[in-house]
C-alpha cells in the first residue's frame, strides 16, 4: 500500500465504520438482526468503495464532512448486503467470506436474507436523512438505486447466474461485470463528482477512470481465485472453476488475463491524468494511490 493511501485508509475507515454502526444502532431493530448485520460489516472488508468515494471528494480539495461519510457508509452497507446474498445457497453457496464463516452459516438462511435486506434498506434510509441540498440528495439516491438495482448490480448478478455452465463472449463478460461489480465502483466516483458539483468534462474523465478501475478490480478478483493466497483473500481459491464460471482467466487464459489487467490499469491512469490536467494537479493523488494498491496481486 502506498504510504499516503494507507494513511488515508487508516484515518478514514474508523469514521466510515462509526457512521454505519451508530446509524444502525440508533434506528432501533431486533437485537438478533442487528447482530447479523454487524457480523458481516465487522468481518474485515477493505472498504474499497467508500474510500474510493472519499478519495474522489478529496481530489477536488474538499474537506471531508459528515455527509461524505454518510454516502461512504451507505455504499459499504449495500456492498455488504450484496456479499451476504451472493454467499447464500441459492447463489454461490459459499461457506467462507472475508476469512470467516458466511452470514447464513452463523445465523441461518432466513436471518442472513433479512440482514441483507435490512442493510440495503437502511443504506437508503441513511442517505435520505443527509443534511444537504435536497436536489443533490435526491440525485445521489437516484444514482445509487440505478447502480445497485435491477439496471445495475442486480442485473449483473442475474446475467452471471443465467450464464453459468454456458460459454459467453468476452464482450458479454465485460457487460455483465460492468453491472455486477462495476456499477457500484463507478457510483463511488460519480457520487464524488456530483457532491462536488463538477462539470461534464471532469465527469467524463473520472468516469472513464472508474470504468477501467472497475474492470481491473474484477480481473484481479478472477486472477486471485486462481493464483491468490487463501490466507490473504479469506476464501478458498478455485471456486470459479468449480462453479464453471465465466471469468477473465477462463476466457483469456492466465497470461491473457494478466495482460488485460495491466491494460485496464494503464487506461485508468491515462483518464486520471486528463482529469488532473483540468485541475492543474501536478502531485500524485489518492486516486492514483488506489490504482497502485490495486496493482499489487
Ligand atoms: C446478490 C444482488 C446481489 C449481488 C451480488 C457484487 C456481487 C453481486 C457479488 C460479489 C461476487 C464477487 C465475489 C464479485 C467479485 C468482485 C467483488 C465484488 C469482490 C468483493 O469485493 P471486495 O474485494 O470485498 O471489495 P471486501 O471483502 O474487501 O469488502
Please describe what this structure looks like.
- The protein has helices spanning 3-26, 31-41, 48-59, 66-86, 103-107, 109-128, 134-148, 153-163, 170-180, 182-195, 200-227, 230-233, 239-242, 248-279, 286-295; strands spanning 96-97, 100-101.
- With 297 residues, the chain is mainly alpha-helical.
- It has a two-stranded antiparallel ribbon with strand order 1-2.
- A hairpin with a 2-residue loop joins strand 1 (96-97) and strand 2.
- Helix 11 (200-227) packs antiparallel against helix 14.
- The longest helix is centred in the last third of the chain and has 32 residues, at 248-279.
- Geranylgeranyl diphosphate is lined by residues 45-46, 48, 79, 82-83, 85-86, 98, 153-154, 157, 180-181, 218, 221.
- Residues 45-46, 48, 79, 82-83, 85-86, 98, 153-154, 157, 180-181, 218, 221 line the site of geranylgeranyl diphosphate (GRG).
Question: Key features?
Answer:
Isoprenoid_synthase_dom_sf, binds geranylgeranyl diphosphate, Farnesyl Diphosphate Synthase
Describe the sheet with the most strands: 2 strands, antiparallel
CATH-assigned homologous superfamily: Farnesyl Diphosphate Synthase
Helix content, binned percent: over 70%
The tally of beta strands, per DSSP, is 2
Content of β-strand: under 5%
Main-sheet strand order equals 1-2
* Backbone CA Rg: 18 Å
CATH topology: Farnesyl Diphosphate Synthase
Total of DSSP H or I helical runs spanning 4+ residues: 15
The name of the CATH architecture is Orthogonal Bundle
Instruction: Write the H/E string, N to C.
Output: HHHHEEHHHHHHHHHHH
Structural class: mainly alpha
Bound molecules: geranylgeranyl diphosphate
Total number of domains: 1
Gross morphology: globular
CATH class: Mainly Alpha
Span of the ends, CA to CA:
11 Å
Catalytic activity: isopentenyl diphosphate + (2E)-geranyl diphosphate = (2E,6E)-farnesyl diphosphate + diphosphate
Protein name: Farnesyl diphosphate synthase
Organism: Vagococcus carniphilus
Keywords: Isoprene biosynthesis, Magnesium, Metal-binding, Transferase
